[in-house]
Design goal:
alpha+beta; two-stranded antiparallel ribbon; 29% strand; globular
Length: 126
């Protein structure tokens, strides 16, 4: 296994709350998949969860080299299931094309929250 890319992103939780407050469901549906939205709403801390997933999407794009054309729904953050180590990423569309062209077999992510900020790191491995 070799590291082919690394991405890091931060998202202030209050910034996510403000964006949702200004634009409502239109913003949420533009950025997040139905699965991501359901998970965040069920999780309890909606804005913290949305900010974490936003940061993970951005970090994943950076790990792929931040190519043009990746849509928000091309990177989906799937919550961990019991017995798994953490959330995973599903790539679709342009993100998947770029990953395949660069020999990326998997994207490993980690999401954290502290001090009003969500952070995520993504590692592209081949």
């Amino acid at each position: 296994m070799s590291v082919l890319g690394l991405g890091l992103d931060l998202c202030p939780i209050d910034r996510m709350e403000s964006a949702v407050g200004r634009h409502g469901d239109r913003f949420v549906e533009r950025i997040f998949t139905a699965l991501e939205k359901r998970h965040c709403e069920a999780h309890g801390r909606v804005f913290e969860s949305l900010a974490g997933r936003f940061a993970a999407k951005e970090a994943t794009s950076k790990a792929l080299g931040a190519p043009k054309g990746i849509g928000w729904h091309d990177v989906e953050v799937v919550p961990a299931q019991r017995g798994e180590r953490g959330p995973t990423v599903v790539l679709r569309g342009r993100a998947r094309e770029v990953a395949e062209a660069r020999g990326v077999k998997n994207i490993m992510i980690s999401i954290t929250h502290a001090g009003g900020v969500a952070a995520a790191v993504a590692v592209a491995v081949g």
